[in-house]
Amino acid sequence: MPKLSISQSLTLAEATLQNTENPQQCALILMAHVLNRSKTWLIANDTDWLSSDEQEIYFSYINRLAKGEPLPYIVEKQSFYGLSFKVNPDVLIPRPETELLVDQALSWLGANPTVTHGLDVGTGSGCIAISLLKNQPQLYMTALDNSEKALSVANENAKIHQVQSRMQTLHSDLLQSFNGQTALICANLPYIPSHTLKSLKVSEFEPKQALDGGEDGLALIRRLLDQSQTVLTKPGLILLEIETTTGDLAMNLAKQHYPNASISLIKDYASKDRLVRIEVIS
Asked: What does pTM read for this prediction?
């Protein structure tokens, strides 16, 4: 390939990414990542030449993206709740809709200032636990996951955001290895029904164990609700992210386990069922 300027490389990259969503923006993001420069700098210096190494790395990234690999895995980071998190194929990529769970948790913590500990079950990158810790200085979190590799990523993110002294990670099958009680349980567990997952592009690159929720999408949520009976204190709150088609089933499960609790189904910003909120009053 002949030597190319930033501008020429971006034009060629956009053509390669023509079947990708937002090809211009993606091409710019990857160029900024390769050169470790801001997008503003790139635009102002678009006649500068790329070195052969920079050019080779850049177009290897462009080809990966064109083949469907998610952009956050290529640049190894994703924004969530105003923070930047390290991600890799060992963890699910944080989604904007999960920010609703953080909003709900922070609102409840604000109304219950004596609560100083919570659980993040199926923590993955640690984005939920760390977002809560960054916004609640008195809070301590235990982040649980059944993947050692995911916990390694969560620990790294905790160090990046300087909350490692308030976040313990625990290798656990849901709550099985947690000995104690807590007032707050947050969980973005695998919730996609197995038969649905097979047809989704997300399953090609992201870890299946972080996506597959069993036959009805509620297998892990059902087990978590069983285990939570001896863990949740009063007052207490459980927040469960769900697949949008399983709202009624998830609500019924919650009512079976917590018949005297205040239970609600919360829609996300796209007006889709997203969270089951279970509040136990003392």
From this structure: 0.93
- The torsion angles phi and psi of 240, rounded to 5 degrees, stand at -125, 120
Alpha-carbon distances of 82 from 37, 75, 244, 258, rounded to whole Å? 20, 17, 24, 34
Q: Which two tokens stand for residue 38?
A: 């801001």
Q: Is 271 exposed, middle or buried (0-12, 13-18, 19+ CB in 10 A)?
A: exposed
Q: CA 133 to CA 164: how far, in whole Å?
A: 10
pLDDT at 65: 97
Q: pLDDT tens-digit profile of 175-185?
A: 999 999 999 99
Token pair in block for residue 29? 């993001």
Structure tokens given for 47: 């006649």
CA distance readout (Å), 57 to 42, 219, 259: 17, 42, 57
